[in-house]
Amino acid sequence: MELSIRTRLTLWYTAILLSILVVISGLSYSLLRSRLMQDLDASLLAVGLVVRDTGWSGSGAALGVGPESALREILGPEFYDKFFQLVDPEGRLGARSTHLREETLPLSAQARENAARGVRTFETVRRAAGEPVRLLTLPITRDGQLVQLLQVGIPLERAERTLGRYLETLLVLIPLGLALAAAGGAVIARTALRPVDAMSRTARRISGEDLDARLPLRGTGDELDHLAETLNAMLARLAEAFAQMRRFTADAAHELRTPLTALKGTIEVALRGERSGDEYRRVLASSLEDVERLVRLAEDLLLLSRLSVPAQVPGERIELAPLLAEVADVAARVADERGVTCVVKERAPATVTGDAIALRRAVMKLVENAVKYTPRGGRVELALRVTDGRAEVAVTDTGIGMDPADVERIFEPF
What we know:
The chain is an alpha+beta fold.
């Protein structure tokens, strides 16, 4: 199924926003968890130092329930959600807080190894019932020797509850935000593409019979205005091309009609009655001239059609000086018959790439027109120059010249 640009923009916008929200939510969740752990570790360390310094962890502490009243008075609310345990370097249990009852906190090999080096350890462990606990193992030394390991723990239930609520909030806000963003994206896409819809409606009304319509411009100078200007320029070129095609068709029909009419008239006259052999030969000769004219006209039309497609124009190296001399020789014979002088005034060496036949015909047509419209006793001059690396063929005459109104149509086919 093909999706509209408006729908694709909305989907892309929503997908990108979803990716951003997921990444940001994941980072914020990780940062919140890390911050909670840091706060818990700081609280455990503060309590652990107080417990160590109160003497509760002294060597005289009895196995089992320790004297906690002093700790309760010192720590206040911090006392009630934490529990303590003393372990000797061999792992034998010492005093512990009443919170633990008969339970023993786990002592990991990493914590014991760190304690032997005088380094405290923060880790997350699970109690016998499976409850997660954040645990601090703090080494206690006497005269540089490790004598006990103080373990202070706090349940992670409250922290996990906070993280769970935050995650639930994210799971509600992300879909809600996506829904609002998708709706807003659809409105923005519809508003942004409204000028495109207007251009589409205008473009559908344009046809080959009416190429004068133009796409509307909003005057904002944005990309859509540039697109409309480009399409309007293309429409102007198409209108000019269609106009040239109509003129070409009309002119070609006129050019073809004249010899065809003459040929038809000649044949009709010849068929009205019996003719002698000489009369038939004259009719056939006249008809042959008309046919040759039609052949030349057809060749011209074929050449114009081929030259209108640049990819079909062959490219070959052409020496212009010999080509100009050949044209001048042919034109001189025609010019002599009309009493016109035709000479090559200047001939610089030049080489170009193009179609030699088409180039020869173009120069010949220029010279023929110059001779045709130059009165007897006039002069036609040909020149080949090279200016700034560009070859220039010039044909000048002393004839009647061109009407300024016809100059703009000089390169039209007829």
